[in-house]
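Sample entry (333 residues):
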Amino acid sequence: MQDKVDSRVLLLVEDFLTDRATRKPSPHTLQAYRRDLIAVAQLVADDSATPLPLAELSITALTARSLRTAFSKFAAPRAAASIYRAWSTWNTFFTFLVADGIVPGNPMPAVGKPKVATPLPKPLRGEDTPEQLLTAVSRDDQRQRHPWPERDLAVLALALCAGLRLSELLALRVASLAGRPGERRVEVLGKGGHLRVIPVESELDEVLTGYLDSRRRRFGARSVERDSALLVDRHGEPLRRGGLQYLVESCYRRAGITDRVPKGARLHALRHTFATRLAEDGASASEIMRLLGHSSLATSQNYIDVTAGQQRAAVRANRTNRVLAGLLPSVGK
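Predicted structure, serialized as tokens:
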């Protein structure tokens, strides 16, 4: 261990979070890193032979044995996905410390972690639900106090036609829309600060152009300068996480499709709908991976596997199959 480095865990956690921040994760992700690191470190401090304040906990106390004990307590009230996320955070933390020469090795491989099944996609239910949603939102609904159908349609279209995450939508700037007509694209800053480029078809391009024109009329030409946030609220201020979630939920209510939105999916149901339709239309796992910014090919393959299973279930439900089943015993007799 380097002699001149302060070995207190809390200070090293802050160094780690500073390093992570340069990769431009969402504030939500950074908060989750901090929460998982502090929670487990506190359990180690409390379980020491002589319990000590967390601020005095040294990195030398974080052994495979102490971490196994801490994780067993951490796991008791939590779901497997939460435990797995915390384990991954600590594994990344120690990888950072090893690379910096703070510790000689990573103890996390000796700490157990649960197996977490790949979550199933949660697209909007109903074959024509996306079209019903877009149609309803495109109308000027006078029941709204501050209707802005051009903006609402742009939000939904970006999620349904480009598969953007909530954090990615919030990070978009006006300059994120690039290219000349016929070759338009949206440049997206995804997880881990990875940039990906998604083609923009003419229909989506028209929706976004109409939105920016309406914004120019509302707030003036300066409101659509290149470094401005692409999505704004009714005051012209950048949309925030809660505001965007509320906007999407209100669109569901206006379209009358709240019963077709999978529980807990919210805006993510639109991204899953985009990916599911790609799979249905024959896109490969690698194509889905590139367009959605997945870090694992297995995640993208999951959309294809689920779609294939749904197609087989639909064929199985065909009444003609039941007729065949009734005929088989008497064939040739």
